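call fold(seq) -> C-alpha cells
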Amino acid sequence: QVQLVESGGGLVQAGGSLRLSCAASGSIFSINAMGWYRQAPGKQRELVAAITSGGMTNYADSVKGRFTISRDNAKNTVLVQMNGLKLEDTAVYYCAAFSGAMSYWGKGTLVTVSS
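ret:
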C-alpha cells in the first residue's frame, strides 16, 4: 500500500504561480512512476504531468512550458511547479503513484485561478 498526501493548492490570480507537493509513504520502494492529474467541474480527470523513477517526464500539451514536475527521492516527494496559471487550470489536482498494475491516489487539492 502507498499513501499519498497533497498540499499546496489555493487561490491565485491568472499569471501567478503555485507549487503542489505530494508526500508518499508506505510501500514506496514499489513505485515506478508518479504523476499529477486534475479534474475540472464537469470534465474528466486528465493527466497533467508524470515522472518515472528514472526521471523521465511527460506533460499534457496544455501545460508544457508552464509546469515542471520533479521528484525528491530522499524525501519521497513529487512536486509540480505551476507558472503562468490560466483560468482553465482551475481544478482539483490529484497525486497518483503507480506500482505495476496498481495505482494509488491522493484525496486531491483544489487550485483556483481567478481573473
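DSSP finds no helices and eleven strands in the chain.
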